Amino acid sequence: MIKTPRQKKKAPLTDLHRVVGDVLSNRSPNLFYSKWEGVVDSASQQGVSGFLYKHVRDRATEIAIQPDVLERWRKDYVSNQAVYLRYLSLVQPIFKRLTKENIPFFIYKGCSLIERYYRDPGLRPISDIDLVMQPKDILSGSHIFEEHGFIQEPTFGHHFYRDEFCLDVHVDLFRLDRVPSRKFAITHDGAGLWERLDRLNIQGCPVRTLGAYDEFIFLCWHAMKHSFSHLKWLVDLGVMYHILSRSSDFLKHLSHLPDDSVRKSVWYVLRLLQEWFEMAIEPEVQKNVEPKKTGWMEQQAFNLVREGAMSSTFAEVSFLGSMSGVQPKLQFMKEMIKGDEFDLRRVVSAGWTTMKSAW
Question: Which domain holds residue 247?
């Protein structure tokens, strides 16, 4: 008896996925009037309500949506703007002082995305300002932060707070401080990042930020590291891809990713953009970024992610699958357990769920 290959199950789309996908592809969301109420809270929780608000508001005559849903999203949109402007008022003097003292730094993630891609602070919430400094400059930088009212948080030394506002300072872009063995699962030219930085002017304040290609690669890795647990990270990448894919240079970069450790995170992101949001991804791009191999357990774990059945353990399974040799894997598990970032019972349970789902 010849066994026919099993058909890959299509990722189930929620109403929120459909609406986000429509907005990313510049389509008018087509939901029944009664279904908007079920989308409004999940959109706020996932950090995409401001993004949806402006698009839906501009097409209000085409979309049957309850006025109170639009009003709740409007409040999120206005709140996003207010928080961002307050952050700028606090960090611009710090950026100018660091520049004056010849202390190199660059920003990335939320602030950079808002300025370069969204162009409207109401579209995306931010909870901190991320910046990268060189290790030798951390002490000098911390004095400047404190002079401007940002006090170092004792538990996590890279966090500086002024009331509820946070500066998240990094010395390693791929965040290996708490789990250094993650270096075994990613290969990227970190040293060359500083030579490839772009310049950005934020309301008269010049700063540097990651090059577009580097930021896209990093955000793919960051989203995978957190098992794609926040929808706004996928929206960020969808917005970026929509803009950057118009450039042949960007697509050329994607076709020459160095190895599976980098290629894998991009491949997973593009799959989710296509399957969750129904974005158009060129087949040639998908082919170029497809990793040469992924472990069976990792493939099944990702299927659970795309089906919405599991998100919290995919990153651990993926990192383990990207490492060669027993010793790096054991070291990674030891560091994850020690740092309370690896729940062994959860992983075993997820593994059992994974195996059951495959059959």
Answer: 15-292
